[in-house]
Design a protein that fits this description.
The structure is a single chain. This protein is about 5% helix and about 65% strand. It has one helix and nine strands; from the N terminus they run βββββββαββ. The chain has a nine-stranded antiparallel beta sheet. The longest helix has 9 residues. The protein starts with a strand and ends in an 8-residue tail after the last strand.
Length: about 170
């Protein structure tokens, strides 16, 4: 828990693609470095048709989760641009909270002191979401867009810090 500030990982299934995303953001000690892993699989062939080479931009719209009083991304927009000219736009909007685990405020004071010493305040969320993905290939005439359902987890281990870009 002391290594990462937060992460999102999930799977989305559309008519055309299976989407896997692992978006890890390190803690302050590692300058909040983003470590993205992203793959797009063609459902017809089972082949990986896109995987990120690490160039990603993420924009979020935050919403406060009332129970834990911390803001989480209600909407996430990822753009993965690869050096070969291919790219993927991924939009995620959570529709329903499936699970909330407050692993900080609901622990004994002795455990909270240990978390504070490590500068963490772990909270875990699981969501059902809707999403869409647009795949752009340099050799294709038009981008391919597909939408579907997604389950994803958001582990928010660090304390709120705008430099982490939740």
């Amino acid at each position: 828990m002391a290594l990462y500030h937060h992460w999102l990982w999930g799977r989305m299934y559309t008519e055309k693609y299976t989407v896997y995303i692992y978006d890890f953001v390190a803690n302050e000690k590692y300058d909040f470095k983003r470590l993205p892993m992203f793959g797009l699989l063609d459902n017809e062939t089972g082949q990986v048709v896109f995987e990120t080479d690490g160039n990603v931009v993420n924009n979020t719209v935050l919403e406060e989760q009332k129970e834990v009083r911390r803001e989480f991304p209600k909407e996430s927009h990822y753009v993965f641009n690869n050096a070969d000219g291919s790219s993927v736009d991924l939009n995620i909007t959570w529709e329903q909270e499936i699970e909330t685990r407050d692993m900080y405020t609901k622990v004994p004071d002795s455990m909270k002191q240990q978390f504070d010493a490590m500068a963490i305040a772990p909270i875990y969320m699981r969501y059902y979401a809707k999403g869409d993905v647009t795949f752009n290939r340099p050799d294709a005439e038009e981008p391919v867009k597909s939408s579907g359902d997604m389950i994803y987890e958001y582990a928010y281990l660090g304390k709120p810090d705008p430099r982490a870009k939740v």
